[in-house]
Amino acid sequence: MDNKKNNNLPNKNIIGKQLVKRENNITQRRTILSSTAKNKNTFSKKEVSEDDKKKSDYTVYFAMEFYLKEKNIDTTLKILEKAITLNPENASIYYNMGIVYSDINQIDKSMQSYEKCLSIDPNNQDARFNLANILTKTGFWEGALSHYEKIIEVDEMAFDAIYNIGFIYLRYLKDYQKAITFFKKVIKYNPLNKEAFFNLALSYYFIDDKEKAIEIYDDLLMIFPDYSMAVYNLASIHFQLNRKDRAFNLFQKYLEMPKHISEYNFVKIAKRKLRE
User: Fold this and answer.
1) How does pLDDT run across 206-244, given as a tens digit for each residue?
2) Confidence class of residue 25 from pLDDT cuts 50, 70 and 90?
3) Measured distance CA(153)–CA(168) in Å, rounded
4) What is the mean pLDDT of residues 189-209?
5) Cβ count near 117 (within 10 Å)
6) What is the residue extent of each domain of the chain?
7) Distance from C-alpha of 238 to C-alpha of 35, rounded to nearest angstrom
8) Which secondary structure element, helix H or strand E, spans residue 273, and what is its range?
9) DSSP assignments along 215-228, one per residue
């Protein structure tokens, strides 16, 4: 891909929110056991008996229950490999392998596992979502967008996929108008999604519509008054607009709020602004 990674936000004094993940409850959201995909384009070299299919499903279940309790990577993978010998076309094996490899940061193997899962079961939207997230983090944004868009084709209300498209346009591709479009869609389907509100305001900020950004942050804080990062960004924008009194009040409020350790640098900036 021609895309280059850029992990820096355009303005160090404005906080940006991160990519949304789907919860990997070790299995797919629908069920811990995923039956073999009925895909006319994929088939085993030999016919798999119904008994072996059931054994394979049970083995996957056992492997991931064991993984939840023991967190033993090597043994879990060996059990999953046993499930492959029983039914190599069981998509859930590769889906769960993708999760395990991702947990130990073996990104290439995780990607390969999700791709294998999708080659057997193209309708596995959780595998597609997780693969898209990996592609996003490794800088292959066009590939990630393609997978997120396929998810939305199946479920137009998949607001986590819609959000992540907006995030790619905001953080990496710097296409803020498109980011605005997708964050608005998220809010349409999930009006209490504070991350979407946050990044919608941030997108307006980056097209230099600071008044609109202020309006959205004000609305966000009406719903989530303890959202410290929104308070910080709102203070920063007022400061840039030379509304010092309002900015100072907000910076002071920010310093008094509970914060995540990752906000340490912003605390230092807020203190410095109060001294100016």
Assistant:
1) 999 999 999 999 999 999 999 999 999 999 999 999 999
2) very low
3) 18
4) 95
5) 28
6) 21-147
7) 55
8) helix 264-275
9) HHHHHHHHH-TT-H
